[in-house]
Amino acid sequence: MNKKTAQLSSRMDLLKQAEKELTQAATPQPRAEAEFLLAAALGLTRTRMLAFGSDMVGAEEQARFWSFIEQKKQGRPVAYITGETDFCGLTLHCDERALTPRPETEELVQSASRLFERGANPDILDLCTGTGCIALALAARFPCGKVTAVDISAQALALAAENARLTKLQERVQFLQSDLFENVQGTFDLIISNPPYIPTGQLSALAPEVQREPCLALDGGDDGLSLIRRIVSLAPDYLNPRGTLAMEIGAEEASAVCALFDSARWEGGVKKDFSGIDRFVFARLK
After folding, report:
1. Model-wide pTM > 0.85
2. Residues 158, 93: contact at Cβ < 8 Å?
3. Which of 71, 113, 124, 153 is most buried per CB count within 10 Å?
4. Burial of 243 (0-12, 13-18, 19+ CB in 10 A)
5. Domains in the chain, ordered, with CATH?
6. Which positions ≥6 away from 168 have C-beta within 8 Å?
C-alpha cells in the first residue's frame, strides 16, 4: 500500500499535504484545486467536504485522491480529472474532447440572457459550442426558445450531446456539425460564441493545463482573430433585424475586434468581465 494511504488521515491533513505538493509543482491555485479534488474523491460537494474537515478519510478514498493529485501535478485540468464541471447551475461532463468552461464564459451567458425578457422565446445560435455549455445554459433559461449549437469537431459535438442528455435539455437544443455558418440555415435573434482567440505564436506559452486542452478550441490564427473575423463578416446574413452578436475575446483584442465592425451597420461595444478586462463584444444590427 502507498505510504500516503497506510494510515487514516483527516480531510484537513490531506489538504495541507496536497497543497504543499501542488505548490511545489507550481500549480496556480494549489489550495482550491486540492479542495476540489478531495471533494470529488469523496463524492461530496466542496462545501460539505470543508464543513466536516476533521472527518477521517479511508484508504480507498485516499488512494483515489492521491491519484487525482498526481494527475494535477502532471498538468491535467481539474475538470478533466474529475470528469465534470459546474456551469451556470448545470453539472456538465468535461474531458479532452472540448475546452473546459471558464467563469468568464458564464459572465457572457449572464449578459446575453439580459437581452431578453423572462419567458421570451429567442432563436439562438451558439458557434464553437464545445461542451455545449453556452447553448445548454441558454436553453435552460429560455424554455420556449430555440437553440442551435454548432461545432466543427464531431468529438466536441458528441460531448455536447451527452451533456444535453445529462441535463435533460436534449429536446431544446439542436446540434449541428459545421465550420461556423457553413451548414447553418435560418436567422437568429442572438448569435453567441466563445471562439478560439489565442494567437498561434502564444500557444506554447500557455499554462501546462491549458496546453492539454484541444488546440482546435484555442488557436485563433496568426493574430488570434481568424475565426472572429469570419464570424463578424458573415453574422449579418444570419441575424434577424436588431439581432445581436455576442462574443468572448482575448484580453488585449478589444480594439482590433471593434475595428472589424462597420459602424454604419452595427452598434454596441465592449463589456468588461468581473476582473475589469475587456472580455466581451456585444454588437447589434442597426
Report:
1. yes
2. no
3. 124
4. buried
5. 3-74 (1.10.8.10), 97-285 (3.40.50.150)
6. none
